[in-house]
Write a structure and sequence with these properties.
593 residues; alpha/beta; inorganic pyrophosphatase (n-terminal core); OB fold (Dihydrolipoamide Acetyltransferase, E2P); 20 helices; 20 strands; globular
Length: 593
């Protein structure tokens, strides 16, 4: 059972509400998100594209622009090397389009997840040299490719790195960290120590977008303005798809980018919207994260991400539609494979000593290696522990990890780097390759040195406002939209009400997987409440706390004897032009006796 914690940060909510013409509930939520001061509040509520940070604040941005302009002017061949996920695909597309508008002789290569692994490898460097490439431009990778970049330099090539991942480091004798940057001609990465960029939480595609902005100059011509508008959609798509925090300029990029995705003239983007049933519909960050984005990731997992890049680059509508359909089919297949792998992992954990581990290291030899990260994420959600899922690869074992807030995954992995052949990542996620014989030592070391306590594994849900449902109006629900887009770093607000009585319920949906209820507060006022969560777990809770008979009555002639506390979010259900308030239940526990 999750632990509920009321966020109680203080401010003059009445004054904030009056000044910015918002409800005091909105003012409280802004304070809970640490949006403090008139300037920050105004930026959050009314920020525009003019408020984005200058690309020239990125270290080496001007140097990279100078290099690329010289290469373009000299007719040198440039090769973009991307990655096989959403961010890598969008980054490569952004750089290709930007460089081509500038007249560059440029192509792009996306590594194959299984045959190449993450980022640039030796073979890709050699192939670039053999193809007469003068300059390699990385995106969403490169910060950790020191050996490959050194090889490219020895072969006489110029290398420009654009990335957003943590730079590798070594621990000095005094315990301090020494950053290890690759020997590239320019390194653009907001996370490098010497970079003064105000916000280091941007994804690789936004770094690429910033470079294109810098290439086109402060006052681009009409073609440049049109292109930047189109590329904004891809920067926003990757920001959500790569689970960046929707704060600072990411929030602005996504807010405006969602509109550009819906209006995009890109045939591939429109085809993807169409096959996913989202054409001409209002888009939210949810649609990118859980509907559109997984289709792009699926091609990199089960096939080749070059197919997704080709979909965005094609001018042939029929080809775009065909590829979009293939991506959706791949994603449907990926869903089934993920479900099977997750079930197998749970059986392994529940049936062994793994269940007692504080850091779960699950070895599934036959699992498709591209699904390891997704399965790790599912297990992290179930057990609220750091999780690594490992599987057999072409050479040794490969895997992915997903973490919890209390555990810095990359730092902890770095403590035993001698066990790996390759690794990388950040606080919340990581990837690793290691010899099969090192799986057990890997699990042993991480568990002995995890530094986690039992309290770290208790899921905590922060309540923004303990708010009676009677306070909710249609106007308040509409006002809540000023907080969007919701996502990582800017979650949908959580409200709480105590002692709601369940009066009547029914099951909806093709598979009866949605519960709809009439509930009553202590004043006798009734409300409609909907639950989209795990109904099996919900019914087990009701039966355990109130008995089977009372649970059956709820769905029959009506209950009234079950009193619960709920976490909820208010919504407007619009049907045939009519609006009805409804509360979306997010969590629950037994009410006061």
């Amino acid at each position: 059972m999750a632990k509920w914690v009321v966020t109680a940060k203080r401010a003059d909510f009445a004054a904030i509400a009056e000044k910015f013409h918002i409800d005091q509930v909105i003012a409280r939520i802004l304070r809970n998100r640490d949006i403090v001061g008139d300037e920050a509040i105004d930026l959050f509520l009314h920020g525009t594209l003019r408020d984005l940070h200058s690309p020239l604040l990125l270290k080496d941005a001007e140097r990279a622009v100078g290099i690329l302009k010289d290469k373009i002017g000299d007719g040198k061949k440039i090769r973009v090397i991307g990655d096989y996920d959403i961010d890598g695909i969008c980054s490569a597309y952004i750089l290709l389009r930007g460089l081509r508008l500038c007249g560059a002789d440029v192509d792009a290569v996306i590594p194959h997840r299984i045959h190449d692994g993450y980022g640039m490898n030796d073979r890709m460097v050699e192939e670039a040299h053999e193809a007469g490439v003068d300059t390699i431009l990385t995106c969403d990778n490169g910060i950790a490719a020191a050996a490959q970049i050194a090889c490219a330099k020895e072969l006489g090539m110029t290398v420009v790195v654009t990335d957003h991942h943590e730079a590798p480091y070594e621990i000095e004798a005094d315990g301090s960290r020494r950053e290890c940057l690759p020997p590239a001609d320019a390194v653009i990465d907001p996370k490098q120590e010497a970079c003064a960029y105000p916000f280091d939480g941007i994804c690789g595609a936004v770094v690429a977008y910033k470079l294109v902005q810098a290439l086109l100059g402060g006052t681009p011509d009409e073609a440049g303005r049109i292109l930047l508008k189109e590329l904004l959609a891809f920067a926003a798509f990757a920001t959500v798809g790569d689970v960046m925090e929707l704060t600072d300029e990411n929030r602005i990029l996504v807010r405006y980018g969602l509109k550009q995705i819906a209006e995009s003239s890109n045939r591939g983007m429109q085809a993807l919207l169409n096959v996913c049933g989202l054409r001409d519909k209002p888009l939210s960050a949810y649609h990118i994260g859980f509907v559109l984005g997984p289709c792009l990731n699926a091609t990199g997992r089960l096939d080749t991400a070059r197919r997704a890049l080709r979909m965005f680059l094609t001018e042939d509508e029929a080809e775009a539609v065909r590829i979009a359909g293939e991506l959706k089919e791949l994603n449907d297949s990926r869903k089934n494979m993920t479900l099977q792998g997750t079930r197998q992992a749970i059986e392994m954990i529940e049936g062994s000593a793994l269940r007692e581990d504080r850091v779960l290291v699950v070895y599934l030899p036959e699992c498709h290696e591209s699904l390891a990260g997704i399965i790790a994420g599912r297990l992290r959600e179930r057990y609220n522990k750091p999780v690594f899922v490992l599987t057999d690869a072409e050479e040794g074992v490969k895997g992915s990890g997903r973490s919890i807030e209390a555990y810095h995954m990359y730092d902890k992995m770095s403590e035993c780097r001698e066990l790996y052949t390759k690794y990388g990542g950040h606080r919340m996620a990581a990837g690793v390759s290691l010899p099969r014989e090192n799986v057990a030592p890997f699990r042993d070391y991480l568990n002995r040195h995890c530094g986690l306590s039992a309290d770290d594994f208790v899921e905590k849900i922060s309540i923004d406002v303990p708010m009676p449902m009677s306070y909710v109006t249609a106007d308040l629900v509409r006002q809540l939209s000023v907080l969007e887009p919701f996502g990582n770093g800017n979650p949908k607000p959580v409200f709480a009400q105590k002692n709601i009585r369940l009066i009547r319920g029914r099951l909806l949906g093709k598979n009866s997987n949605v519960g709809k209820y009439t509930v009553e507060d202590e004043s006798g006022r009734t409300y409609e409440m909907v639950y989209f969560g795990d109904l099996e777990k919900w019914h087990a809770f009701l039966t355990e706390n109130f008995g089977r008979e009372e649970c059956d009555r709820l769905y029959g002639r009506g209950g009234g004897g079950m009193k619960i506390h709920v976490l909820y979010y208010p919504d407007l259900d619009v049907y045939q032009g009519r609006e009805r308030l409804q509360m979306i239940m997010q969590d629950y526990c037994k009410g006061d006796v």
